[in-house]
Amino acid sequence: MTGSSLFSFPRWQQWRIKYSVARGPLLLVIVALWGCSRWLRSEYGQEDTNLWLVMELFFRLVIAAVVALIVTSLGTALAAWLWFRWQRTNRNIEVALSLGDGHQAQAGQVAVTVQLKGRMWRPWLGSVQGRLVFAREGISLPVLLDENVYGKNPFFKKGIRGTALLPLTDIRIYDVEKVWVVFVDMLGLVSLPASLASVQQLYTVPLAKDTRTHVVHPNATEEQKHRIVVPKRVEGEYVNYKEFEPGDNIQRIVWKIYAKSGQLVVRIPETKDPYASHLYLYVSYFHGWEPGGLFDAALLNRYKEEVRHLMDSVARNGYEIRLPADQEVPKLAGVGDKKSELFQISAARWQNQSPPSQFAQPSKAALVCLPTCVPAEEVETLLQKLPPSVPVVLIRLSETIPSPFRFSLRAIFFKPEKQPTDTLRQTWLVSPLRRALLRNEKMLEALAKKRDQVWLVEKIDAIR
């Protein structure tokens, strides 16, 4: 099976928007006019009657008005398209994109602004649309460019722009390769595309929500190797003293103690510990199937959501979080080390090269998180290596996509919100992957009963 995008734009429509000029409504108009003509001739086709002469004249006037309107709309759309291409050839047109805050956005409906800078105009009785072309993912839904952008002179516009909410539901990195600018006539009969190069990257993160705090302590055997920005005071004046030795600063002699006991002591200079305790949270993205399946994106999105909630609940303990990566993390322009954990979650993919038993280090691990697609044999090997005090969380994935037969009374009165996984419900119900997950989860449940500090849950909030 090949991977599927959660965009609502099928691949054959992507091909049509690139290479096809005539659209479906144009053919429908031609067929409708031809059908009306045949029907009128069959009903009033007696040329020697006055009624037919009136109907024929009326029909010709209607056809002339419709054709004039269509030709005007098509002509201005073609003229605006040709002018745009000529300006693009002379490099007088630039495109500027704004996605989320420029680098990051929460997965879901993401605000996108497309602005075209340059001398251009919209077709009369038509519109201009912008579509983002993502690397390996196709074309997005249209963004209507319906707003003029003016400079200092309010009589001359310097561009057009438009803003829309695009459904970027996958939690990952989005790479924009180019922007298709589409000129459409009033009736949507033709679509005239032109492309503009635009390199833009955005990563989406799981939605944050309030979760209760899960108490986790750092591993006591961990060495202090990671420095912090603000050192903590561990000892200093009025806390520690030592006997006076040759070479000590006489200004640090405590004369009050000398007056009472006759012993020369000096204050130990204040020192600060440049280290702090932190938690190693090992999150594995190991799976037991071949990548590129139909359900990869949906399962990965669900797992990343729970990983984000788990990380937030553990961070409330006051310790700094360390999130080792079980795969190579790509570099993204404009993303530094600050808040790199969220970027790491967003950039992670399913992998089958680094199993959890080799990835998680027992001497450092404070908590381990695994998906239930990890084979039970691998989880058993990991549990044998980990100390009994290290918690292990198993995220259940078999219920990621709801059953198509699930019924609720609320749905009778309120239309449920559409989810990206709605189109996968029937296929998931009979999928061999779902059956394999259910079998593996039964074995994982048996392992969880044999060992403390192991939770097999669908949601992080279910951990007690």
Topology:
Blueprint: H1 11-19, H2 24-44, H3 50-89, E1 94-99, E2 104-106, E3 108-117, E4 127-134, E5 138-139, E6 143-144, E7 147-150, E8 157-168, E9 173-184, E10 191-205, E11 227-235, E12 241-243, H4 255-261, E13 265-267, E14 271-275, E15 278-283, H5 296-315, E16 320-322, H6 340-347, H7 356-359, E17 365-371, H8 376-385, E18 392-395, H9 410-413, H10 425-429, H11 432-450, E19 454-457
Parallel strand pairs: 2-10, 15-16, 15-17, 17-18, 18-19
Antiparallel strand pairs: 1-3, 3-8, 4-5, 4-6, 4-9, 7-8, 9-10, 11-14, 12-13
**Would you give the CATH topology of the largest domain?**
Immunoglobulin-like
CATH class call of the largest domain: Mainly Beta
- The rounded distance between the terminal residues' Cα atoms is 39 Å
pLDDT averaged over residues: 79
Approximate helicity band? 25-40%
* C-alpha Rg (nearest Å): 33 Å
Poorly predicted residue ranges? 1-19, 225-239
- How many β-strand runs? 19
Fourth CATH level, the homologous superfamily of the largest domain = C2 domain
Which band does the percent of strand residues land in?
25-35%
* Domain count: 3
Q: Which sequence of SSEs, written as H and E, runs from N to C?
A: HHHEEEEEEEEEEEEHEEEHEHHEHEHHHE
Q: Per CATH, which architecture of the largest domain?
A: Sandwich
| Backbone shape | elongated
Total of DSSP H or I helical runs spanning 4+ residues? 11
Largest beta-sheet details: 6 strands, mixed
Class computed from helices, strands and strand pairing: alpha/beta
